[in-house]
Write a structure and sequence with these properties.
Order of helices and strands: HHHH
Number of strands: 0
Structural class: mainly alpha
Shape: rod-shaped
Radius of gyration: 24 Å
Distance between the termini: 14 Å
Strand content: under 5%
Helix content: over 70%
């Protein structure tokens, strides 16, 4: 009975970590140079506009830089979290294999 509970807990942990791991893919910036290029293009378009004054142009450029900086921070945090989740999943798989291989009588002694 204890072995079934332990196996089910490890499986639940593996499934939860995998779900969280794959949901974080949206937050990772896989092509930072492309996004930097797009930000540069946005800044250039703002600079070319004649309907706004220089202060507003400066403000819009700063907003683009802020958005880009925030996206980089979120991407770095998502990558670190995925790295930790990967190690947790590996540890849980090892525990699951040990639980499946070790006979029932040895689990009670642990």
């Amino acid at each position: 009975m204890i072995k079934k509970i332990l196996i089910s807990l490890t499986l639940i942990t593996i499934i939860g970590c995998c779900w969280f791991f794959f949901t974080l893919f949206d937050a990772i910036d896989l092509a930072p140079t492309k996004n930097n290029h797009l930000a540069s293009e946005e800044k250039w378009k703002i600079e070319q506009r004649a309907d706004i004054d220089s202060c507003e142009k400066h403000l819009l450029k700063n907003q683009i830089d802020l958005r880009r900086g925030n996206a980089k921070r979120v991407s770095e945090l998502a990558f670190r979290t995925q790295t930790i989740l990967f190690f947790v999943i590996c540890i849980q798989i090892v525990i699951l294999l040990i639980l499946l291989i070790v006979p029932k009588r040895y689990i009670f002694k642990i």
